[in-house]
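Margin note: ligand = iron/sulfur cluster.
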Amino acid sequence: MLEIKEKTISVNIDTSKCDTCETKACAAACKKFARGLLQITDGKPSVEHLSADEVLRLGTECLACELACKFEGNQAIKIDVPIEGLDDYLAKRGLA
Ligand code: SF4
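Resulting structure:
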């Protein structure tokens, strides 16, 4: 499992699903729609070429890798987007 922390989100990648992925669509989407943080190393997405500070500075939180992986890859990416107050808001409206 690879966890990438950006400013407000966490990108979690189950890299055990990547060996059989033929598209590597996550890295292509990252390059096309963001700043190309994700690179494929030994068949898996990686940010090892960047420091933690560089990941924070360059990350655009665009979510493109998750969508690309969902539709063209092996559904290995889940992005956690915490929204402060959302649980209270939903509970207040009976939606929790
Ligand atoms: S698209 Fe998904 S399954 Fe394919 S290499 Fe990227 S994260 Fe892994």
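Residues 27 and 64 are 9 Å apart (CA to CA).
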